[in-house]
Amino acid sequence: MDLGISGRHAIVCAASKGLGRACAEALAREGVGLTIAARTRADIEATAEAIRQAYGVPVTAIAADVTTVEGRAAILAAAPRADILVNNAGGPPRGDFRSFTAEQWLAAVNDNMVAAIELIRALVDGMMERRFGRIVNITSSAVKSPTADLSLSTAARLGLTGYVAGVARQIAGHNVTVNNLLPGAFETDRFRGGVTARAKAAGITYEEQFERQRSTIPAHRVGDPAEFGDACAYLCSRQAGYITGQNLLLDGGQFPGTF
Asked: Which of 217, 153, 227 is nearest to 185 (CA)?
């Protein structure tokens, strides 16, 4: 399927690896030019070069922390007229809710809610004027099915989810959509770190903990980041213009609910 976005330009945050990189690669495959950002210069520049070589699209690499005012300014300066925005940022620490300080709660809200809102706010008017915009926020399956050690992430991302629910309806008439992608278990550094932490807490090996988690997924496997990238690319497509304000759960069927 031709997604109808060749020649568009996208900002993809936290794109040097994992789900962010998968989204960037899926968009590049569709002919979308990219501005990709991550904190480590060597990593983001290596990713940019790999995408240029693989897909032949222009890619600008920005070494910036999207959770800071300065980082967002650098990203926006490189792509002030982006047609597509993929918001992504590293998740906050895991742990018991009792252990977190007020500063950690505020940092989680800044990193996983405010940063995305600020980028949306900066770009949405231009998208509306040009009558095309696609905004995708990478959040978490914990928004729909909270887990005990992800309270910081869940609370902050739920705030973003509520924001999107209101904003999406205000701008839909201008062919600008906003949706959230909720990943479950995918083969990323974040997932592997979680398996390691839970294995240590349970006093078992990594392999045993991995199998415990895998066995709860009806698909009997963890996700491939490329699958996630493909879902993102579709939500950014011309064909997805009637989908907005939604939360698409990608978890192999793990959530047991009807909706």
From this structure: 217
